[in-house]
Write a structure and sequence with these properties.
alpha/beta, Rossmann fold, 7 helices
Length: about 300
């Protein structure tokens, strides 16, 4: 992972693991599934470890087991950011995993590790939601600067850094507008949320179906914007993203995890071998179309298996 321009990382570097090869069939890429073995130890070079996670909800004597001994490792790959997408049917636990990492929810049992250390309440991991979360009574600049103000950064310095981030997310000229609809469009409001979360220079950014309420054109535009942020050398967080869209997952991701439910488990883990610099033209390539079709078939198979069961 690249270094953050405002935050020093003291985590030890590790060698980049070999990626699975991409086999070709008639010049069309074949998604190569990687191992989904459960972890045995927490490595200090890992970004995130979910270890033996159990989640049980009880309601009038009925036990709903969402997670049972669930494990997930997110490795820190040297000099490379990661965009990890989690997919699966509604109710399989995708958003719950993000809440564990962010600290918004604690599992019934099990441990969450961030950079090899057990997660504590002092860990601040931002999360972007599907719903618009800007403070409507504040301007765009005030919204973006707020996390810095809360950390005790002087107002002038906070506003200066907030303006840098506002320019990065393409909202320069809107900083004095109220952060509410219809003064700003849905796509602009989500950019405000992303800027507010990135301004504190997180190494991890969580996104729970952030574009689900956007129209198709705006959604594609903001996907391009998010990829440009991810590809920016000065801002290189590990992004963990939840979506139901196969095409969105393929366009954005370096890795895709597909979860099964009842209880949650990693059914598939795939590497997406598309160019690091992704322009809109990538969507029309044979490789992209093949990835999307194969993911669609996997999701459909998963749904049909649950029906038969």
């Amino acid at each position: 992972m690249k270094k953050n321009i405002w935050q020093k990382q003291d985590d030890p570097e590790i060698l980049q693991p070999e990626e699975p090869t991409l086999e070709m069939e008639n010049e069309i890429p074949v998604i190569r599934e990687t191992s989904t073995e459960t972890p045995t130890t927490v490595q200090t070079g890992d970004i995130i470890n979910l270890v033996n996670i159990n989640q049980v909800y009880e309601d009038h004597g009925h036990r709903n087991v969402v997670c049972k001994d669930f494990n997930l490792d997110v490795k820190d790959i040297k000099d490379q950011g990661q965009f990890i997408t989690i997919m699966g049917k509604s109710g399989c636990g995708k958003s719950t995993l993000l809440r564990y990492i962010s600290g918004l929810q604690k599992p019934t049992s099990g441990d969450v590790f961030i950079y090899g250390k057990k997660r504590t309440n002092k860990d601040r991991i931002p999360m972007v939601f599907q719903q618009y979360t800007s403070f409507e009574w504040k301007t765009v600049l005030q919204n973006v600067a707020l996390p810095l103000i809360l950390k005790g950064v002087p107002k002038e310095e906070a506003n200066e850094k907030a303006m840098e981030m506002i320019k990065i997310v393409g909202l320069d000229g809107h900083e004095k507008k109220w952060a509410k609809y219809p003064i700003l469009s849905g796509g602009q409001l989500q950019r405000v949320a992303i800027a507010r979360n990135l301004v504190v220079n997180p190494q991890i950014l969580l996104m729970d179906e952030p574009f689900g309420a956007l129209d198709t054109v705006t959604r594609k535009q903001i996907q391009l914007f998010l990829r440009s942020i991810f590809e920016n050398a000065k801002l290189d967080p590990t992004v963990i993203f939840v979506t139901h869209s196969e095409s969105e997952a393929v366009f954005l991701s370096t890795d895709i995890y597909i979860l099964d439910s009842g209880p949650a488990s990693i059914r598939h883990h795939y590497k997406i071998d598309l160019p690091t610099q992704r322009e809109d033209a990538v969507r029309y390539s044979h490789e992209f179309t093949d990835y999307v079709n194969k993911l669609g078939m996997l999701m459909e198979d998963l749904k049909n298996e649950r029906k038969k069961g």
